[in-house]
Amino acid sequence: RVIETYRLTVIQEGFKGEGTAEKPYTISSAAELLYMSKQMNESYSTTGAGYNTKYFKQTADIDLPAVAEGESNWTPLGKNTDDNKYFRGNYDGDGHVIRGMVINMPDDYCVGMFGVVASTEIGTDASKTIKNVTLESPRIIGKQHVGAIIGWSYAATIENCHVTGEAAVYGGNNVGGVVGNNGGVTRACSFSGTVCGGAHTGGVAGYLSGSSKQIIACYAAGEVKGDNEWHSVGVSNEGVGGVVGSLGKGTIVGCYSTAKVSSNREESKIGGVIGLQTGTVTVSSRRIFPDTWHRQ
Questions:
Q1: Within the chain, where are the H helices?
Q2: 24-78 pLDDT, tens per residue?
């Protein structure tokens, strides 16, 4: 069977809409989505410091172009750099699907559809929100803070986002099916597929720590694996969990996992919901399926 691969040339210029909550910028095609990423990452200052306070709304299902093995068809929105080029806007997928996202960045930090989403306060009007996004069969590879939706959520809200199909998320540290490092609130989200990481690896989130950090009504299915091949040197106290890999402090409410959880590392702490717990945790309506997790 011949698989045709090609690159999509970004020819979109500008957005439709005004970027406000009432009249958001609309994203209806792969060209418009890729233009959003290009402007964010190549012309950061002209986007108003990472689309600060701007609103985007997806208005159609989008198929990203196929690419050759080892290549990418998406550059994460927002970077963890010395000059803090974070995404500071709001994105509403409106229930539409983005298919076939491929990110092959094994040496990069903060990898996902959004690399870093930064807000000033959790749970307030200032909190940036990524909501109603569905990624179908994404393949994501990064080094640290790796998640299909967001690599590192810094005081942001992730709501009603789903990763479906033959999804695969791989990374070295803080690796999650939805979000790698959950520094905000993740609510009503799900993952189905394979998550594989060296340390702090979870079906929904790789790492969660902070009294105001929350994961609410989320679930994971498929497989969550701790793998020595992906382990980052110097990382210890690592967990592999069906919902959260490692949890220092925070709240988990109404979450569960049916994923098979395993690790080939003797150092890994394994759990059906939480792999490693090192601080105070509030857990409500916990469902654990002990027959679904084991050490290889």
A1: 30-42, 48-51
A2: 999 999 999 999 998 887 766 545 566 888 999 999 999 999 999 999 999 999 8
Distance CA 169, CA 146 (A): 7
What's the pLDDT tens digit per position in 202-215?
999 999 987 778 99
The Cα 249–Cα 124 span in angstroms is 20
The amino acid occupying position 270 is: I
Q: Which two tokens stand for residue 116?
A: 């870093």
Residue type at position 192: S
The rounded average pLDDT for each run of 10 residues, N- to C-terminus, in the chain (296 residues) is: 42 77 96 91 61 92 95 90 77 98 95 88 64 98 96 92 97 95 94 94 92 90 88 68 91 92 86 86 52 43
Question: Distance between CA atoms of 37 and 34, rounded to whole angstroms?
Answer: 5
Measure the CA–CA gap between 9 and 22, rounded to whole angstroms. Answer: 30
Instruction: Give ∠ CA 174-68-146 in degrees, rounded to 5.
Output: 10
C-alpha–C-alpha distance, residues 252 and 208, integer Å: 10
Cβ atoms 183, 211 nearer than 8 A: no
Predicted TM-score (pTM) of the model is 0.88
Q: Going by C-beta distance under 8 Å and a sequence separation of 6 or more, which residues neighbour residue 82?
A: none
Compute how many other C-beta atoms are within 10 angstroms of the C-beta atom of residue 166: 12
Specify the residue for token string 């709501």. Answer: 159
- At 277, phi and psi to the nearest 5? -120, 120
- Cα angle at 172 between 117 and 141, to 5 degrees? 65
Q: What is the DSSP string of 55-97?
A: EEEE-S-EEPPP--TT--S---BS---TT---B-SEEE-TT-E
CA 54-137-230 angle, 5° bins: 95
pLDDT at 63: 98
